[in-house]
Design brief:
alpha/beta; Rossmann fold; single chain; 37% helix; 10 strands
């Protein structure tokens, strides 16, 4: 997405002075950023950098300790219900219900959004087509491969037709073929106008998908820009940029 165009768009997420403590540990340290409508924005950094904490605050899973966070122009502390209704979340962990089939996982999840059963069934089949799992509709979750589970988690995150999709390490643990499959689905969603926010360990994932990335280290944002601009400014690929800005290598 063109950077000039981004500057003219409506911001879906705005943070000012975002800080989060866990006891005495400052997990997120006074960060500011904005995410535009239709943008794919990535948080790049190792475990412990604060990426997942920032995501959890955006989708109202936890409150900030200090600072201001607005999503769709609404304060995350004051309007969590309204915000959650318009967001889809694909978590890093596999939390699919093992007692249900692939199709049932989607239909049951739709109840959280008060979607009528006749509508949720239609939506579930459409989403299974989108993630190419129609033939697995009646299969138990335990029988799915890791790549299939990641695609089903993506489908589940889309049940409420979200305007903003949050993806925490969407391709962690996947083989190259499965990773490419998830990337293609995310590109299709972006083309439809869905705003995407993702965390990742993978440099190639950030380069291929993100309009901009925020490089995080020890709870702070050390740089925000497009992958291409960061590589031009600092020289080398994103891995070298990260090493230059943080003084250490990014380990997956």
């Amino acid at each position: 997405m063109d950077m000039i165009l981004l500057s003219k768009m409506v911001n879906i997420v705005t943070t000012k002075g975002l800080t989060k403590y866990y006891g005495d540990l400052k997990a997120v340290d006074n960060i500011d950023f904005e995410i535009a409508k239709g943008e794919c924005f990535g948080f790049l950094g190792p475990n412990g950098a604060g990426k997942t904490t920032v995501m959890g605050i955006i989708y109202c899973f936890m409150p900030p300790s200090a600072g201001e966070v607005k999503v769709f122009g609404m304060d995350v502390n004051k309007n969590p219900g309204e915000i959650k209704a318009r967001i889809g979340v694909m978590p890093q962990e596999d939390n699919l219900d093992p007692d249900f089939s692939v199709l049932e996982n989607l239909i049951v999840y739709a109840r959280y959004f008060d979607i009528p059963k006749k509508d949720s069934s239609k939506t579930a089949w459409e989403l299974l087509d989108f993630v190419e799992l129609r033939q697995k509709a009646d299969v138990n979750i335990k029988e799915l491969s890791g790549g299939m589970k990641r695609r089903l988690l993506l489908a589940r995150a889309l049940v409420n037709n979200p305007e903003l999709l949050i993806l925490d390490e969407p391709t962690t643990g996947l083989d190259p073929h499965s990773r490419l499959s998830v990337w293609e689905k995310l590109r299709q969603l972006k083309l439809k106008g869905t705003t995407l926010i993702l965390t990742t360990h993978y440099m190639e994932e950030a380069e291929r998908l993100c309009d901009r990335v925020a490089i995080m280290d020890s709870g702070r944002i050390v740089a925000i820009d497009s992958p291409n601009n960061l590589m031009k400014m600092h020289g080398g690929n994103l891995e070298k940029v990260y090493l230059k800005l943080t003084g250490r290598r990014l380990e997956a």
